[in-house]
Amino acid sequence: MSDDAGDEQAHISERRQRGLEKMAEVYGWDVSDGPGDFFGMTVEHLFGEVWTRDGLSQKERRILLLGLVIGSGLDDVIGLQLETALRLGELDPDELRDIVIFAAHYVGWPKGAKLNTQVENLIAKAEKPTPAT
């Protein structure tokens, strides 16, 4: 193996590790490495390069991502992003409610109403005291 190939492997491994660490930070749980090109590109490029850029804060990226997934109607991803933003303290309940009001005017009232239900259910679940064991 040439030195160039070895350097490229080290760079990919470094980028992959940086991506796994950022992915864990973004979602707030441990992330294990996984197989396949799609997972590799997600970790190395999206999380290792795009999410680690200096231009936007993680909160700003989360809000932007929420707008995109809300506008696209990706309900399963919306739920994941809302829950993560609230759990990690990036957005508080009032900020989530403001996002609903703002987004509803752009994505349409039926989608906004559905989003409102998601947000209110999430907030109620997060505020519900956990029983003592």
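The record above closes out task 2.4. Task 2.5 opens with a second protein, given below.
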Amino acid sequence: MSSQFCFCAKDRLLIATNKNGRINFLILKSYNFATVKKLRMKQIAIFSSGAGSNAKKIIEGPLSPDIYRDSPEGGDLRVPPYNVSLIVCNKPEAGVLKIAAENNIPVLLIEKEKFFRGNGYIDELKAMGIDLIVLAGFLWKIPVALIKAYPGKMINIHPALLPKYGGKGMYGNFVHETVIANKEKESGISIHYVNEVYDNGQIILQATCLVSEDDTPESLAKKVQLLEHRHFPAAVALLATL
């Protein structure tokens, strides 16, 4: 499927469009599109509360040659930009735990009291050498102490085009139901940095899909999930090189 690209220097946005929607990608001023070298592979922790389909795609991401970067050693070696070295979960029955087991990834099961009134598991994350935190269907609000411990190193994905349809209680089918009820013509995903306010951090990437008149929350969810699986691993890989 062909796409058209343009770069908006004022807003530092790379914009791709095709007949099914568009992608807006924030390009940081400090980012150099030249080959990234002499950077170690970043260690990532994925926070998830559910089935883990996005976590699975991110785990599989380094297996794709499309997101490899040059090896720090030079030559023809290729190394992935990141490694998922920890799954953090707040639900013992969550499907993401099976995905972690299948991929031999350590799991940190967290409890509410320590997360919100203790140190937010900062010590455990630092001990694991975590460089970047990725929220992929994690439903607890992140405590301020943890956000401050990882400034600019924590991202989230939201199943709508922020700033619309964000905030407390806006997740899963609640989002899609509201989008359809408001007769929106398009929806999509937003990948953004995490700050102290729900779904309020700087947007990194947005990708859109069309909302049809006959869409249901379930059919729209499938469209949005396709965008998530397509773009989330690539966004994580890019951020891991910064």
